């Protein structure tokens, strides 16, 4: 139907990008944010290369699992998770989730206390096409309380500087803050 939209993609570009990533960052495993393009072919290709997946909804989790990905390769990364969705992910075997606030940590500890957590810190590139610091990330002054209360559940630190980020110093600042937390907490 000429009225239908469509697109053509070369999945080999995914291989090239993945190879470049692993060459530049050999100790950092990428987790593909499914929400940016939930195409089954992309998910399957990335799964075959060894990527992990950042899922923000039960539907995204279902898609990734349906592509044969093991639940241990999924992070449930919604900033404000409904209790039902959190338990849904946990019941499917997704054992890692992100959190941006003490309230999210308390919810996770109450309803899914065996899940591990990744603290997402606030980071921003004010020149990004889509500034996300108003949506994602714990305020740095709240991190000490979250870290203390999370204890051994805390297994990592992440950040999102914004979509279409243009300022490399935003990454430098975020990486510095994440490294400080990782070193202070003695995370891997």
Write structural notes for this entry.
- With 188 residues, the chain is an alpha/beta fold.
- It has helices at 12-24, 40-49, 58-66, 83-91, 102-111, 140-150, 168-185, and strands spanning 31-33, 52-55, 74-76, 96-99, 116-121, 154-159.
- The strands form two sheets. Strands 1-2-3 form a three-stranded parallel beta sheet, covered by helices on one side. The protein has a three-stranded parallel beta sheet with strand order 4-5-6.
- Strand 1 (31-33), helix 2 (40-49) and strand 2 form a beta-alpha-beta unit.
- The longest helix has 18 residues, at 168-185.
The helix content is 40-55%
Query: Percent of residues in beta strands?
Result: 5-15%
Helix-strand makeup class: alpha/beta
Written as H for each helix and E for each strand, in order along the chain, the element string is: HEHEHEHEHEHEH
Which regions contain 5 or more consecutive residues with pLDDT less than 50? Answer: none
For the largest beta sheet, what order do the strands appear in spatially? 1-2-3
Question: Care to count the β-strands?
Answer: 6
Shape: globular
Short description:
The chain has helices spanning 12-24, 40-49, 58-66, 83-91, 102-111, 140-150, 168-185, and strands spanning 31-33, 52-55, 74-76, 96-99, 116-121, 154-159. It has 188 residues and is of the alpha/beta class.
